[in-house]
Structures are given as C-alpha cells and as structure tokens.
Write a structure and sequence with these properties.
The protein contains 9 helices and 8 strands. It has about 230 residues and is an alpha/beta fold. The chain has 2 domains: about 5-15 and about 85-220, HAD superfamily/HAD-like (Rossmann fold); about 15-80. Strands 5-4-1-6-7-8 form a 6-stranded parallel sheet, sandwiched between helices. It starts with a strand and ends in an 8-residue tail after the last helix.
Length: about 230
C-alpha cells in the first residue's frame, strides 16, 4: 500500500467534545432537556441535521425553522471549531511515521470544505495533508466511490494501493466500491443502528484503537523498514 486516506470526524480527529458542548448549550438556551453526550457522539458522523434533530425532534429537517436552527449550530461550530478537538491519541505518531517514509496521507470527508479547512488549520495539519476531498469537489458523496477515485487521481496512486479508514458504513462502502483496502475504526463515532454487527460492514479489517490502526497500517505499507535516503 502506497497511501493512506482517512475519514475526518471520528477516525482521524476527535471532534465530539465540541459538538457535545454546542448541542448541549443549544438545549439549555432553549430550555430543553439536555441531550446525553453519548447520544450526540453517536450522531456526529451523521452530520449537522442529525445532531440538530436531537434538540428539535419535532421539526422536519426541511422546515424553515429547523434550517434556521441548523445554520445557528453551524455558525456556533465554525466560530469555535477546535476548543476541545484534537487528533485521536496516538494518531500524530502514525502520521509522523507515514511522513518519515514518504507515504502520503489525506482525507476524504462529507464535512463541508470550509469547516474541514478551518479544522485542519486550527490543528496545524493543512500542510501535512496531501489531499482533501470534500462534498463540494464531487457530484456524488460517500458511499459513492467518486470522492475516493478523485483522491486517488490527485495522489497519482492507483486506488487498489490505497488504504481508507472510516467509522461509518458509508466510509467502508465507498472504499470497497473504489477497490481500496478498508479499515473500520471501531474507536470512532459508530452509528447506533450499525454498531452491534461490525462484521456486516464487510471491512477488510477492524481496529479498536489507534494503536491497532498504527500496527495494521505499518504492516500494509511496510514503513517499519528503514526510510530510504
């Protein structure tokens, strides 16, 4: 394997704490029952609509009032995008090992480009990330393989020589459909309706923490070998 791609939220970066803070603050501001942190965490990979629906379950997602609340949520998040957010523990040594051996790593995400760029900038990852593919870059997002193929073209590496790690079934589907080697990041924000049967995702590999992810990627890329001069 010659490159590694990651999903963003819940795989590469632990963003849940900031989403929990914002959603719970919205509940308090509205005088509503505060949504449990674990429930919010399980919805992070489902996107802004799913998280805002936890606060306003009575509203249809196409309701103009709901859309106003969703925009308010996005504004709050964009203003304080990395207060309690960081790489998952152990992830930076993995990225450093890849970089030391000239193995490019990048991101394929359904997170909007503006927010993705802001997050990478806040964590000083912009220059380190070899490729960033967001919904605005494609006509069909994950689970369609289009964003995966775009990332492969930008890296100039065949898709079948690329690893993709993600924490949602659509990540694994997208990677499999693009003939990439797929890793299910079981330490991430697994959606409630899919977390009890991880084998059904049909990933090539399941890892329970970043240490296991490091080991699998090390084996697949061979970066345990000394870097060439």
């Amino acid at each position: 394997m010659k490159a590694v791609l990651f999903d963003l939220d819940g795989t590469l970066i632990d963003t849940a704490a900031d989403f929990i803070r914002i959603i719970q603050d919205m509940c308090r501001a509205e005088g509503r029952e505060v949504v449990a942190a674990d429930l919010i965490r399980s919805q992070v990979s489902e996107g802004a609509r799913a998280m805002v629906s936890l606060v306003y379950p009575e509203l249809n997602i196409d309701d103009p009032v709901f859309l106003t609340h969703r925009q308010h949520f996005l504004d709050l998040y964009g203003a304080d995008i990395a207060v309690d957010t960081d790489l998952f523990e152990g992830m930076n040594p993995l990225l450093e090992a890849l970089e030391a051996h000239d193995i490019p790593w990048g991101i394929v995400t359904n997170k909007p480009r503006e927010l993705s760029r802001s997050l990478l900038s806040a964590l000083n990852l912009t220059e380190r990330c070899a490729v960033l593919v967001c919904p605005e870059d494609v006509s069909r997002t994950k689970p369609d393989p289009e964003p995966m193929h775009l990332a492969a073209r930008q890296l100039n590496i065949p898709a079948e020589q690329i690893i993709y790690a993600g924490d949602h079934p659509r990540d694994i589907d997208a990677g499999r459909n693009a003939d990439m080697y797929t890793i299910l990041a079981a330490y991430g924000y697994l959606p409630l309706q899919h977390k009890d049967d991880l084998d059904a995702w049909q990933a090539d590999c399941i890892v329970n923490n970043v240490a296991e992810l490091y080991q699998v990627i090390q084996q697949l890329t061979g970066f345990a070998q000394p870097a060439t001069a």
